[in-house]
Write a structure and sequence with these properties.
There is one protein chain. By secondary structure, the chain is mainly beta. 13% of the residues lie in helices and 37% in strands. It has one helix and eight strands, in the order H-E-E-E-E-E-E-E-E. Strands 1-2-8-7-6-5-4-3 form an eight-stranded antiparallel barrel.
Length: 149
């Protein structure tokens, strides 16, 4: 009985230390928990500010937006798909890869773009209540993450 309580206390303590670790901002999934962010995310321009882009899962009840919403998909195995607005409406899918560079930072590579675009890095700012906030890091070349119409 005592061992069970000690094991539970040790687990809670390690979670608290992980959340307080300087390189792991609170509210961000750790590497092992990055699977939480897998799936399709669509842009919320009304919640995006300056260099912060806000996204919700594609299952969210969005307000109607003519032409659709740009977004992206993080898939298992490092597969990445960026959805841009296509000329004339609809979405254009661009396939690539993603990898985690450090905690909360994703390196995006889209090899099929013409002309070829340099890789870029996204920083996960927060993930709360189903709202994902990202920022393109300035250290990388200035590439539009999601092309606005």
């Amino acid at each position: 009985m005592r061992f069970h309580h000690l094991a539970r206390l040790a687990g809670a303590t390690s979670l608290a230390l992980l959340a307080c670790h300087a390189e792991h901002p609170a509210g961000l999934p750790a590497s092992a928990e990055l699977a939480q962010l897998r799936g399709t995310w669509l842009l919320l321009p009304e919640s995006s500010r300056a260099d912060t882009l806000a996204y919700r899962r594609n299952t969210y009840r969005f307000k109607y937006q003519p032409g659709g919403r740009p977004g992206f998909r993080l898939a298992p195995g490092g597969r990445f798909t960026r959805f841009d607005l296509a000329p004339g409406g609809g979405l254009l899918a661009e396939e690539g890869t993603w990898s985690e560079t450090t905690t909360g930072r994703l390196l995006i590579h889209l090899p099929g773009l013409e002309p070829p675009a340099p890789d870029y890095e996204l920083e996960v700012l927060s993930y709360k209540g189903g709202l994902l906030k990202l920022r393109r890091l300035r250290e990388r070349p200035a590439v539009e993450v999601i092309r606005q119409p």
